[in-house]
Specification:
By secondary structure, the chain is an alpha+beta fold. It has one domain: Glutaredoxin (3-Layer(aba) Sandwich), CATH 3.40.30.10. The chain contains four helices and eleven strands. A five-stranded mixed beta sheet has the order 7-6-5-10-11. α1 links the parallel β5 and β6. The protein starts with a strand and ends with a helix. The relative contact order is 0.25.
Amino acid sequence: MAERPGIITMKGNPLTLTGQEAKLGEPAPDFVVLANDLSPFKLSSLKGKVAIICSVPSLDTPTCDIETRWFNEEAAKLGPDVLVLTISMDLPFAQKRWCGAAGVERVTTYSDHRDAAFGQAYGVLIKELRLLARAVFVVDKAGTLRYVQVVKELANEPDYDEVLKAVARL
């Protein structure tokens, strides 16, 4: 498995990302993760929709909470052809509980805890922690990866404006 040391940090300490780095302009790698009801979900099932895919370390941390709530609010403005997914290593039960407590209804959460299939396919699995790096990917209606943002410091939020600009171009 490919390793990319020092791409991100946690409190300034370098971490290693594993998996294949997702490449702009290429078909978005397919993956299988678990929905909150434990059913499998494949990215390929979203053909014909624009997908904003956010990977976060854990919904139960302050930055992930802020980010997911922000995307939940923005999702209402993006229209029905844009879906927002948040993927973490949290168990599906924890994700469902968090969404209920936070009132998050427009972002769909998925768990990569079982196989780390998403983390490996997009190169955002943190070797030292077995968590996902904070990153945002935008996939167009044809299934092509059109935007990639891997946040350098794990505790920082993504550049939301850049994500919205990428979606607007589609």
